[in-house]
Design a protein that fits this description.
By secondary structure, the protein is α/β, with parallel strands linked by helices. It is 44% helix and 21% strand. It has an 8-stranded mixed sheet, sandwiched between helices. A hairpin with a 7-residue loop joins strand 5 and strand 6. The longest helix has 37 residues. 38% of the residues are buried. It holds the Pfam family DUF3887. This is Alpha/beta fold hydrolase. Keywords: Hydrolase, Signal.
């Protein structure tokens, strides 16, 4: 019994020794990779260290984009390196300290000393209200019993009245910043526009604040009118009645679903024009159908992929049938918390035609790396509708995703990339500001 006990201790020590050696090698290799990143040896890193799987999903060009987007100006030190071995993998985490930035690097190494994962990101930096702006609390209440908290961001130069934008969120419950994963796009836009002399009103979405009450009051009769449109119209009218705002220079800025609904909002609120951020003139069900097919994980079995396709086709067939149903019958279908009537109601409006008939200035913006609302199907649809319309400006941005943040990393093109902290690209905010100022002159 004694000999067996000693043997087990010896085995345990041998395993610990192997782990320690594995961790040490992984840590050293990680430091080499960081130094090569700083020396811009991206191709060499890919060839020398990347596993075949990582080479496919994260080629040298993408690695370069991620590093150069996050690094600072001068590297001071590599800090807080920690290695942990688990089974046949070793994960190393550390910080790269620059004069003006801190970058987190996380690597995962296999037994062959090849990288299976390399993540580069800056810690999320909370935006501060600019010195040139002020902000006040405001309440939107389009319908009694549904008050919504909001914020009005104003330029702090005392030279109003100012042009203004009402920001309208995408699908699902959302706070006034449209916070999603590591992003707060509406806060970014509000602060950026205010710095450029433009007021911005943003507010919590009704389903964010009163989701349970809406289900109780409306049930399956809930539509985008109660969820989004009524509150946006009320927000625009509040601005139009504010002495600090130019009443004829209030714009609707809609993102995603908000961009799809902006033409309907404008019809009721009679705004100065629309800013459509990753919106679409297509039916919502068409976009949902495409997303089901486009976002199938590669690691699914062929059988599982076929099942997803069958489900997507069944959804498409059902969604198309809603248009020929009585509303009461469409309400009986539950599509993951959304009734068939929700889709049916939206399909009663041709938002592309409504936008065209508005005869107002429209700015259409699209990220070319957007995998949710795509440049190939949705942006080109806008281009076709607004062909040769002098009042419409269309622009797309390489490497920006659905949130108009840099699309980067080994999970580029998937929801996982949204975990990388980021802010709305400055070029987008500048383009919106310049477009509004141009139409204000």
């Amino acid at each position: 019994m004694r000999k067996k006990y000693i043997f087990l201790i010896g085995l345990s020590l041998a395993v610990l020794s192997a782990c320690s050696s594995q961790e040490s090698t992984a840590e050293e290799n990680t430091e080499k990779v960081i130094q090569q990143l700083q020396d811009e040896e991206y191709q060499q890193i890919e060839q020398e260290y990347f596993s075949e799987a990582l080479q496919e999903k994260y080629p040298a060009a993408e690695l370069q984009l991620s590093w150069e987007a996050n690094r600072g100006t001068a590297l001071n030190e590599i800090n807080n390196m920690e290695a942990a071995a688990k089974e046949d993998k070793t994960t190393v985490s550390g910080e790269v300290i620059f004069d003006d930035a801190t970058v987190k690097v996380k690597t995962k190494w296999n037994e062959e000393e090849k990288l299976e994962s390399l993540k580069i990101e800056r810690p999320y930096e909370e935006s501060a209200l600019p010195d040139s702006a002020i902000e006040e609390e405001i309440t939107i209440e389009a319908e009694e019993g549904y008050p919504l908290s909001g914020k009005l961001t104003l330029p702090d130069d005392g030279e109003g009245p100012f042009p203004a934008v009402v920001l309208v969120q995408g699908s699902g419950p959302s706070d006034m910043d449209e916070a999603i994963y590591s992003y707060k796009p509406f806060q970014d836009i509000a602060y950026g526009l205010a710095e450029n002399g433009i007021a911005v009103l943003r507010y919590d979405k009704r389903t964010f604040t009163h989701g349970a009450k809406m289900v109780e009051d409306l049930g399956s009769a809930l539509s985008v009118k109660e969820e989004t449109i009524d509150d946006a119209v009320e927000a625009a009218r509040l601005l139009q009645a504010d002495d600090r705002i130019l009443p004829d220079q209030v714009y609707i800025g809609g993102h995603s679903l908000g961009g799809m609904l902006a033409p309907r909002i404008d019809e009721e609120a009679d705004t100065a024009g629309m800013i459509l951020l990753a919106g679409s003139p297509r039916s919502l069900w068409e976009i949902l159908y495409d997303q089901q097919l486009d976002l199938v994980p590669d690691n699914l079995s062929d059988e599982a992929k076929e099942q997803v396709k069958e489900q997507a086709e069944a959804f498409k067939e059902l969604a198309e049938s809603f248009q020929d149903m009585p509303s009461e019958e469409a309400m009986e279908y539950d599509l993951g918390g959304m009734s068939g009537y929700y889709l049916q109601e939206m399909d009663q409006y041709d938002v592309g035609q409504i936008a065209l008939d508005s005869d107002k200035p429209i700015l259409v913006l699209q990220g070319e790396a957007d995998f949710q609302v795509t440049p190939e199907k949705d942006f080109t649809a806008w281009q076709s509708i607004f062909e040769n319309d002098p009042q419409v400006t269309l622009k797309s941005y390489p490497d920006l995703n659905h949130i108009f943040t840099l699309s980067q990393g080994e999970n580029k093109g998937s929801v996982q990339e949204y975990q990388i902290p980021g802010h709305v690209d400055e070029e987008v905010i500048t383009d919106i500001s310049n477009w509004i100022i141009e139409h204000n002159n």
